[in-house]
Amino acid sequence: MNIYDFVVEFQRYNLFCKNNLPTEIVRYLFSFIIFDIKKVIIYKYLDSIVDEHRIFNDLNIHFNTIPYLNSTKFLNNKNRIDVKNYLLSELNKKFYNLYVFSHYCCGGKGIKITTFNN
Prior knowledge:
The protein has 4 helices and 3 strands, in the order αααβαββ. It is about 50% helix and about 15% strand.
């Protein structure tokens, strides 16, 4: 369990008990997990792309279309590689190891994932 799970359960408990914490305390608590929350949102968005993807089609994604990756503060090489690896693993789970990374496109602002036989 990570800290995100604890804070979410804490917030649910407070809502259930009808406790209203001051805004400053809630903001302070969530400041510790803001990047975890952003990653959850990014991965849910990528999951929706994988779910809508059809087999044997190449996949082109530009980072500026992904939530929180369109800012230069959050877009760095580590996050680009994380997105690439996550997409590849999810596509290969769904389509039985059919996809490989092709290249970064548009000056590093996007990625292309293609089928293994292309």
